[in-house]
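Practice problem: predict the structure.
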Amino acid sequence: MQAYPGDALAVIEEFEPFGDYFIENGQIIATKVSIVNKDKSLKQIYIRGLVSKYVKVGDTILGQVEYVQRPFAHVIIFKVNDEKLHGDLRAMIYINPNFKVVPFNEGAIIRARVIAITAGHLLLDIQDDNMGVLEAWCPYCGGPVVKKGKNMLRCLRCGKSLYMKLAPDFYSTSSKYNRSKIF
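Answer:
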């Protein structure tokens, strides 16, 4: 099970806690984004933080757009402030319904900033100049794309032009770029 800062995990009478937690009004509360394991036979709960500090507003993340379901895109996070995660962390990006084109596609690797943590959900934004898509593929044919302009791409396979909010260090999926710089 995954927990976010402030999530109530159990009551102190039920489990003996270990890890990143605090007690408030008899509740065991997570202090970090964590993986939680409950051992009911030993009556113990283990709360292991995914990152060595809190994920907070202003942090920079690297992740992959899992799916887009307007008005939100759902993102799987790989890194927070260049620190690799050892578990699954998810977030959302709000997409203005008035925008005709989504500024990224499913499967795109993005750099974003945490702008809010609301009800345990991380909300992201890519509006800053150094945020945006780092790597993408054609949503029509899955082919490699190359940068055509500031925020324009062209598919090398089907020739379609695409608009995406590109990061300054976007690289073409057809190049021999060293992906270890991201991952």
